[in-house]
Amino acid sequence: MSLMARPKEQAARRQELVAAAGRAIVERGVRGLRVKDVAAQAGISAGLVSYYYPDLGDLLVDVHEHSVDRFYWSRMRQVEGVPDSPGRLRALAGGGLPSGPDDELCLMLYELHLHAARDRTHAALMTSLFDREVSLYVMVLQQGEAAGELVLAAPALDVATNAVALEDAYGLHIVARNTRVDPRRARVLLLSYLAQATGADLGSGDELASSARTTPRDAQG
Fold first, then answer.
1. Which residues of the chain have pLDDT under 70?
2. Which residues contact 23 (CB under 8 A, 6 or more apart)?
3. What pTM was estimated for this model as a whole?
4. Do 153 and 199 form a contact (C-beta atoms < 8 A)?
5. Three-state SS for 153?
6. Is 192 helix (H, G, I), strand (E, B) or coil?
7. Which domains does the chain have, with CATH numbers?
8. How many CB atoms neighbour CB 43 within 10 A?
């Protein structure tokens, strides 16, 4: 029995270290990250961290993969059950931006995405998230067009790509504490673009602000 349980225990320990490394990245950034920082967050010795992750780079890859999955599936859950295409677009616009400058998951992703400039594995993960988010928008846009709820001013792929790029750009300003771009302002501007690109009535800025996620992503597993 103990031999059968060991792989599960190792997997659980790795998950704990991924979570601890994520917290350490939020606190210190990727460049300043050390094994002892992860150990402190996990409440274990640095030697035990190195036992599971002899190469800190491998741990960073696992953190990035986990963060990408969390972010994407949180967005997918937000559109599930929404009955109409304008409503799904509002949900997407409300869920693709940081909730504020202290949004831990978004902070992790921006830190790790910046790491992509020097590492092809991280670049591939960044590209994967972008492609998955674009595909989610494309799905909503094409469904809305087929249902006669949306009239697209450009191909669905172009509208979706612009929407995700705007989210990423505004999100960077939000986490960087640019006082000219707060979450509500960014959502209003993103919604304005989507309304023009789809011909849909997507509601007022106040309505959009109220449609933002109710459960912060940094609190999800």
1. 1-5, 204-221
2. 41, 104
3. 0.86
4. yes
5. coil
6. helix
7. 1-54 (1.10.10.60), 63-213 (1.10.357.10)
8. 8
